[in-house]
Amino acid sequence: QVQLVESGGDLVQPGGSLRLSCAASGNFFRNHIMNWYRQAPEKQREWVASITQLGHTNYADAVKGRFTISRDTVENTGYLQMNSLKPEDTGIYYCNVIDTWGQGTQVAVSS
């Protein structure tokens, strides 16, 4: 079974940038859709972005134009580049493939 490990979360000021990483234990990104989700304090987990096996991407309206999802099928690592961060982007970010989730990485946007 695939294992996913996220990293890259941090405290950043509004307007700043972060790049999250999702390391997979196997070559799963080549054959499956990879998703990023996030969960803000006291809110439900919400979908953020997806990338298909062919590299097609989709984004939630709240992050469109600011976030970029990508993956390296050689390194078995997925990424979420986050620019122009806002306080409402604060939350735990999770990587997902099929029914497997990572442990999450914390992003805090605050001045």
SSE layout and pairing:
Elements: E1 4-7, E2 11-12, E3 18-24, E4 34-39, E5 46-51, E6 57-59, E7 67-72, E8 77-82, E9 91-97, E10 100-101, E11 105-109
Parallel strand pairs: 2-11
Antiparallel strand pairs: 1-3, 3-8, 4-5, 4-9, 5-6, 7-8, 9-10, 9-11
Structural write-up:
With 111 residues, the chain is mainly beta. The strands form two sheets. Strands 2, 4, 5, 6, 9, 10 and 11 form a seven-stranded mixed sheet that branches. The chain has strands spanning 4-7, 11-12, 18-24, 34-39, 46-51, 57-59, 67-72, 77-82, 91-97, 100-101, 105-109.
Q: Could you give a quick summary of the protein structure above?
A:
The protein is mainly β and 111 residues long. It contains no helices and eleven strands.
SS class: mainly beta
User: Which term fits the overall shape?
Assistant: globular
The parts where pLDDT drops under 50 for at least 5 residues are none
Helix content: under 10%
For the CA atoms, what is the radius of gyration?
13 Å
Question: DSSP helix count?
Answer: 0
Which whole number gives the mean pLDDT?
A: 95
Distance between the termini: 40 Å
N-to-C series of helices and strands = EEEEEEEEEEE
Strand content range: over 45%
Instruction: Summarize the main sheet.
Output: 7 strands, mixed
Number of strands: 11
Features:
111 residues, mainly beta, seven-stranded mixed beta sheet, four-stranded antiparallel beta sheet, 11 strands, 0% helix, 49% strand, globular
